[in-house]
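Inputs:
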Amino acid sequence: MREIDRRSKYDRRVFLKGAAVTAPAVAIATSTGLGITDAWADDASTLTPATMKTLLKVARDIYPHDFLGDSYYITAVKPWDDKAAKDPAVKSLINDGVARLDAAANDRHKMPYAQLAWENDRVALLQQIETSVFFQKIRGDLIVSLYNNKEVWPRFGYEGSSAEHGGYLKRGFADIDWLPKA
Amino acid sequence: MAKFDLNDSGVVVIVGSGAGGGTLGNELAQKGVKVVILEAGPRIENQDFINDEWDSFTQLAWSDARSTSGSWRVHQDFPGLPAWIVKAVGGSTTHWAGASLRFDEHEFKIKSAYGGISGANLLDWPITLAEMEPWYAKAEDKMGVTRTNGIPGLPGNNNFKVMEAGAKKLGYKEVHTGRMAINSEPRDGRGSCQQIGFCFQGCKSGAKWSTLYTEIPKGEATGNLEVRPGSMVIKIEHDPSGKVTGVVYADPTGAMQRQKARVVAVAGNSIESPRLLLNSASSMFPDGLANSSGQVGRNYMRHMTGSVYASFEKSVHMYRGTTMAGIIRDEAKNNPSRGFVGGYEMETLSLGLPFMAAFLNPGAWGRSFTSAIEGYPRMAGMWLVGEDMPQETNRITLDPKIKDKFGMPVASVHFDDHPNDVAMRDHAYKQGSAVYEAVGATVTYPTPPYPSTHNMGTNRMSEKPRDGVVNKFGQTHDIKNLFVSDGSQFTSGAACNPTLTIVSLAIRQADHIAGAMQRKEI
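Outputs:
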């Protein structure tokens, strides 16, 4: 069977370019294995860096994929800053939602949400606000902003658009080789 | 190409250009009848279709406001999107998967076959399979349906091979790559299937039959058919004698136009067609046009649906190739010993990663969800589609509050599953899972219904005017020059996909309309 190259094209390009001067800070951090710097959160204009970092943690906890670096989740949550800048209602929705989450975390664990070490503890807090507008908006947005990112697709073994490659007629539409003989 | 005057009262106006409207338009044009098709959506040619689920949804889907109510899960998950259908020239024949199956004999007479079912509004069709057979044959030839007319079946893809192997282990007998209106070899000026895999996003190669690039250009070539895209019909008008005289529609600039007509045929699908009849209420017809029975909008059917996806140890890559790549038909029979009447088909289905995330278990999150999604390349999938019970209370009404941009009330869709639908779905989930477990599935996912793709029954056919909206030719019982030409005519939904029956009825209706016009009956 023709298997999919699961390496991200994005990371590979950065790697090939070496210094990657034109790549965003996020990508450099990922490819050099240094972890994500906080620079992306400091770029936010309307929401605070702490709020952006909490959103990142919330996004990871809602749809945890351990093989995905933070960069994909950052791409997914970063637009909330723009939306908050354009709409005060969104700004307070996010700020109030994060504040309530932190208050609940402080009540139970004496520390803010993003600092809770175990995912289970954070997920328990999310479950309490599962029906809130804040959670529903974040989750509903994420199902598109995370999974509709073309950079993510190869990581999940999905090949995307195929017509320009002549479809799969000669590219493995019927190449399964492990089924028992019928 | 023809261009007809707004005051030309000799034309047949067809509302909608999909399986019903597009076919009817071409058939009438071939017979020399002058036709204007008014299509609410834009004209997008197949080379401009997009191999990207969300971008294509934005390009093609009917996303105008609608509201929902009822206990069906679609109301909870997608309250503003009861149906996944298309607003573009070609209608939902751009989006459909291509499965082209005939009804069984008993599926035209379910009241006789199933007897009394509490809570269901069963009725026999005023036509039989024997009467429909020649029309089915014409439709299969027109659409180039595989396994008919000597056309070979399509090759099976990976997703089909998994389902086939499991089906055979379970002892299912009728398992094959389907009767599909997708060219397995070049035919009718269109090439053969390239196994592109984005059937739902519009077939870029044109191998799949769609009125967009078959019926409509053929009709236009006669000089008798004019298609006006971006033209949303908002009202059908009538004279004091009760005959319809034309329609009012918003043109692409939003300006209101009045197209006169000798005959009006409504083919806007089972949600918009009853909406238009209800929105056309007048002092003479206060409950809406053709609604003396009170049945306009009622008996909405959307098929018992659901999906089973399964993960395996090794790769499947189900998204490669034809979306609906094969079928198991053994459960389609009516066998009440299973605990329900009617039957269901099992048809392969695949979604791309973005739609799999959105539809696998809407609203779900956390590790059980992400673990399922991480199995994506190792997944196989099937759609379960079966006959649902017509119920009077499942209906399209006019929303009391929400209006469209032209000030017309939008459609509100109410649906509750009938206990028979629930029993059938439970059985289908069990059998679907068993198919995959037979060949080593490690996990199976009983996936809830998507927004409706099969919409039927809201202007149903009946022998007696008091039981339904149209007669056996789709002609309304109340107004002789007003017709319904889409799936809303269906008296019952059968187990199989509806398009072949819609097309067959449209070919038959064209014959009837042309004859009646010639005889000056309409």
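Remarks. Chain B has a mean pLDDT of 98. The two ends of chain B are 26 Å apart (CA to CA).
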